[in-house]
């Protein structure tokens, strides 16, 4: 979801709107090299020569053209499709006079016990059949929306896509997911009301014909309100429907041999890791969080052309998006982000309010930007010697709304220490979640994190850049933050706990339910309930197909299909070439990407 209000301030000036993705069909040209060994003198015995004398290294470099590799954050597409087609799950009888009269009469007869058992059973069976048909039509529309975009990128744009899906909800986000579930539950209740919202509050126990006639009337505004509630509800909170939707989606990806990866937890960190490691050339997303994670090339608002100069938005116009590169971020006119590092962007996002931490009342994106800039770029006598994060927290306390200031200040008031401690805990935990996400490395085949803890395992830590470590040293000057990132157990309580090696590989491919817990294995029902809490992007692994070609809702913990049909993410990363391969003998010397998306110079870390 990201930070509210940040994209409208950045994209109009820093982004390239209405970017036609078909211009990427020519791919990119890169200089790659292969390392070979040959014997200097074949006549001499190997044991009579030293290693330096027996072999030498030759590097054969050549220019080659390849397709662009684009990672897709599937959360945005699924959420958009689920909410956009939410009206398919609404009972259409609410939108007609005759249908509302039938609903009211059925309700009256059921309440009074007038309906016969046989007629009631028939009505129940008919209602269940109609509901099943509605769900099937809804799932078909959602899958059609997603697969059409994927096929367009593959066929029309000549792009190799890697689909990244969200996994288990990280511990720090459990509260936010519960709140979203409650909002969706209220929307579902409003969608399925037997009476219109205005008449529901004024209804009485009188069930005469006059009352029935009065309650069948509905205004256009009330009908639109019900449709709006159905779109807000989206796929709803039914775990069976969610399981069926996610199962069929994974089966579609497998049947078309599309490479996908289910991230251990949030897909944001996984996408940033793939991009920053050179595994993909860009990311298509709707989440603004990727801006602060250092992704070089982002494509937002993928859809039809939204400008009159390009003619009418027909299907022939293709898909357009807004391209945002990391180097152009400082040119945003809506907000000054010049010279902002990744750590500064992370702190600004947390101050303004993100998925992991609510902002203080009165703190918006502009105020958060000013607070971070003053803390990093200016230093007065009062702030001399104080850590940067401490300066930011004190500035937030002083610039928030007066009611918040009265709750948090003065600092020497011990009674208000608990309120400040609660916010600081969420504040620091959010920064840790952004900076140290738990991700899956498709080359190593294991879950890793930016683990800088003193007791961290080396195989669980990524090879972070020198710039990341310099920024991290500045943040770790604040002792509470240092304690979080230096303690492995404290870090895992925020970002989630890694899985064993074999289990990690199965989970990212959907062979094992991503709700599987190392300590206590949850049942299928508990997993489905957790999926309803985070139903926008949570996925259940597909199950073995039934005779009627419908997935089973009782068995989805282990995938029973053959692994031979599974698309290989490692093949996508290694088999087609990478810019930073940890296991192959290829060494990319440079990368010159074209056309405009790839015109910017390659990052220094890609040069070797």
From TrEMBL:
Q: Where is the composition biased (Low complexity)?
A: 201-221, 586-608
Q: Where is the composition biased (Basic and acidic residues)?
A: 110-120
According to the UniProt record, where is the region Disordered? 110-129, 175-221, 525-608
**Compositional bias (Polar residues) spans?**
548-569
Residues forming the XPG-I domain are 254-325
Recorded protein name is XPG-I domain-containing protein
Please spell out the taxonomic lineage of the organism that makes this protein: Eukaryota, Sar, Stramenopiles, Ochrophyta, Bacillariophyta
């Amino acid at each position: 979801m990201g930070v509210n209000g940040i994209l409208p301030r950045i994209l109009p000036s820093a982004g390239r709107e209405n970017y036609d993705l078909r211009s990427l069909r020519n791919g990119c040209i890169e200089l790659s090299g292969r390392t070979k060994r040959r014997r200097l003198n074949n006549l001499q015995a190997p044991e009579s020569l030293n290693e330096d004398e027996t072999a030498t290294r030759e590097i054969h470099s050549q220019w080659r053209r390849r397709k662009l590799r684009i990672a897709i954050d599937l959360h945005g597409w699924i959420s958009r499709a689920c909410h956009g087609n939410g009206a398919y799950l609404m009972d259409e009888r609410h939108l007609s006079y005759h249908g509302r009269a039938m609903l009211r009469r059925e309700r009256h007869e059921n309440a009074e016990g007038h309906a016969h058992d046989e007629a009631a059973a028939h009505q129940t069976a008919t209602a269940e059949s109609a509901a099943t048909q509605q769900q099937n039509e809804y799932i078909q529309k959602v899958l059609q929306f997603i697969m059409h975009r994927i096929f367009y990128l593959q066929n029309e744009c000549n792009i190799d896509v890697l689909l990244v899906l969200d996994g288990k909800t990280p511990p720090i986000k459990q509260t936010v997911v519960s709140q979203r579930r409650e909002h969706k539950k209220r929307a579902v209740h409003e969608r399925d009301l037997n009476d219109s919202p205005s008449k529901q509050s004024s209804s009485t126990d009188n069930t005469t014909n006059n009352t029935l006639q009065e309650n069948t009337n509905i205004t256009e505004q009330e009908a639109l309100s019900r449709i709006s509630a159905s779109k807000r509800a989206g796929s709803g909170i039914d775990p069976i429907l969610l399981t069926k939707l996610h199962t069929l989606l994974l089966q579609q990806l497998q049947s078309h041999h599309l490479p996908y990866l289910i991230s251990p937890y949030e897909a944001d960190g996984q996408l940033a890791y793939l991009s920053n490691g050179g595994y993909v050339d860009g990311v298509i997303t709707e989440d603004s969080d990727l801006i602060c994670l250092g992704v070089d090339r982002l494509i937002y608002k993928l859809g039809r052309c939204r400008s009159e100069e390009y003619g009418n938005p027909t299907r022939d116009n293709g898909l357009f998006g807004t391209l945002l590169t990391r180097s152009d971020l400082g040119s945003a006119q809506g907000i000054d982000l010049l010279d902002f590092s990744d750590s500064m962007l992370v702190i600004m996002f947390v101050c303004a309010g993100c998925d992991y931490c609510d902002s203080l009342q009165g703190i918006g994106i502009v105020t958060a930007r000013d607070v971070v800039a003053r803390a990093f770029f200016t230093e007065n006598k009062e702030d001399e010697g104080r850590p940067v994060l401490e300066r930011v927290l004190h500035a937030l306390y002083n610039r928030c709304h007066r009611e918040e200031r009265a709750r948090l200040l003065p600092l020497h008031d011990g009674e208000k220490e608990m309120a400040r401690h609660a916010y600081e805990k969420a504040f620091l935990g959010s920064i840790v979640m952004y900076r140290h996400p738990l991700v899956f490395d498709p080359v190593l085949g294991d879950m890793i994190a930016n683990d800088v803890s003193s007791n961290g395992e080396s195989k669980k830590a990524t090879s972070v850049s020198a710039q990341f470590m310099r920024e991290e040293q500045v943040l770790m000057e604040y002792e509470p933050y240092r304690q979080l990132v230096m303690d492995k157990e404290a870090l895992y309580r925020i970002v989630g706990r890694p899985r064993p090696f074999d289990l990690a590989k199965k989970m990212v491919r959907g062979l094992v339910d991503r709700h599987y817990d190392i300590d206590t294995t949850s049942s299928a029902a508990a997993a489905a309930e957790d999926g309803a809490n985070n139903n926008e992007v949570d996925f259940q692994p597909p199950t073995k197909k039934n005779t009627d070609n419908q997935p089973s809702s009782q068995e989805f913990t282990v995938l029973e299909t053959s692994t031979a049909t599974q698309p290989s993410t490692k093949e996508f990363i290694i088999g087609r070439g990478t810019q930073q391969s940890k296991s192959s003998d290829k060494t990319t010397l440079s990368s010159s990407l074209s056309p405009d998306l790839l015109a910017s110079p390659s990052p220094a870390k890609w040069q070797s």
